[in-house]
Structures are given as C-alpha cells and as structure tokens.
Design brief:
The chain is α+β, with helices and mostly antiparallel strands and 281 residues long. Helix content is 42%, strand content 22%. The longest helix is centred in the middle third of the chain and has 18 residues. 22% of the residues are buried.
Length: 281
Amino acid sequence: MTDPIFIMPDDFKFSSFTDTGIYFYRTNKSSNNNKVHFKQNVICFLLEGNKVVSNGKRTKSFGNDKVLLLQASNVLMTEKTTVNNAYKMILMFFSNDFLSRFVENKKLLLEKKPKNNFNFSLLMKDNYISNFEDSLLFFENKPLISEHFIATKLEEILLYLIERERPVLTDFIHTALQSVPSPEIIEVIKNPANINLTVEELAFLCSMSISTFKRKFAEIYNTSPKKYFIEQKMKQAVYWLRQNKRPSEIYYELGYENLSAFSNEFKKCFGVSPSTYILQN
C-alpha cells in the first residue's frame, strides 16, 4: 500500500475560497516524510513543535522561531511534536493570481532575474511577526473568516516581509510567478483540434509516457484526461445546441461513433437527453 499524497489546500476544505485561505492546524502525533502537494503558495507560522521540509534538492529543519515561505510544489514534510505532544501552526495560502495582483496593485519592482530559485525560504521571527500571529489566533475559533479579510492580512505580512527581507521576497515572488506548469501539455490541450485524441496520442504529442502525461495532466487540471475532455465536449455540445444545431449534426464532430453514445453521455451530465435540453432551453 502506497503512502497517501496530501493535496493542499484542498484537503482542508476551504468552502468556496479560491485565491486565499487560512487554516489553524493542530495535532498530537508526530509524522515522518508526508508527501504533500501544495497547489498554492503558503506562509507557515509554526507555533509549537518542529518541522522538516525537503524538496529533493535541500532539506531544512526549523522550530517556532522561524516562518516558512513555500511556493506551490511537491515536498516531503516531517512533523515533530513537543515533549507535551503538541504541534500547532497557522497556514496562509495564496494563489499566483493573488500574488500577481498584489505585485501590480502595490507597484512592486522585481529583479529581472532572481539570485536564488529555491522554492522555499525560512525567515526569522521578530516582535512584529509574533504580534501578527497573535492577531490571526484571535480568529481561530470564529465560524467564518471572509476571503477579503484573509487577503488583507496576507498583504500586510507580505509588505512587512518585503520591507525587512526584500531580496528574499522578490526572489520568491519572481520565481513563483515564473513557475508555469508543463507548457507543452497546455499548448496541446488548449488546441480544439485535439479534443477527440486518445490519451496515448496526446502523450505522444507531448513526448511523454502515458503515465507521466496522466500525472502532469492531473497536476495542471486537477482531474483525469477522460473527465476533462468529456466536460469540454459537453460544453461544446451545449453551445451548438443553443445555436439550433440538431444532435444528429454534432455527435460525430464531438468524437462519438453514433448518436446514441452521444445522447447517453449528455444525459449522464445534464439529466436529460439533447433533444429535451433543446426544448427546455
């Protein structure tokens, strides 16, 4: 049995939040080399315990005297509780879209080429950061925290860290915004002409094995190729149906061998047949 891969922040179930999120994490058990896929960047404020982070190129251990700044990536994480079996941290997540708007709105000038391209950095805490942590803890047991509030607090701490650690933060922001996922896959997938290709054919076009293609595809689109293309086909079907095209005119263009196969797939997605959908809309 393989070890699970934790997907962050998805596994924390942040309701409908997209660009930012905050999570107050506690545990009384140590763990070793958890596989964690961070879909967003994160600032980690460790309050109790010790943590080890490894990205395959370097490994760093730290305690509650440091702050972890981590780009969206895959890392191994070890958590060690205190002698009293306590481990506590605050995680603030933010997407690259949020980061891009932050740079634009604050008119930040970034270095053309970062000096370092590490995907994580450790920064020493000071009184300001300790007080910032306390301000977050005030909301730990509140039922709802608005995304606007989280975004405002993120801007606050990022601006402070830029003032204090500008070279580190500018390198972090620059490399995070330059980290684009597998452009060869994106270019192939966004081409409408490829919507009916098999996974094997798509992998071949991307010069990848099938297993590598599926893995990288999931990292980018958070679903399987099959589910993704069915969704795209159904969106296209709805568009054509609303343009008064008949189901018999579009099933072949969508890659279905016959009208029955198309109708069955459509009904699975929308609960009604294409013909009924036309009448209802």
